[in-house]
Amino acid sequence: MCKRPGYLVDHIKPLCEGGSDDDTNKQLLCAPCHDAKSAQEAAARSGS
């Protein structure tokens, strides 16, 4: 986790990939880190 202020709840394994909504599958990420992770996951799903 970086030191930027303001955090979002992120699913470690995305729900659309079979991840659970359980607390063990959640982490806090700052908005830029969350956006970067989400972009990587979307690119992987699209095969890019």
Automatic annotation (TrEMBL):
It holds the Pfam family HNH. Residues 2-39 form the HNH domain. Transmembrane segments: none annotated. Signal peptide: none annotated. It comes from the Bacteria. This is HNH domain-containing protein. It comes from Massilia mucilaginosa. The lineage of its organism: Bacteria, Pseudomonadati, Pseudomonadota, Betaproteobacteria, Burkholderiales.
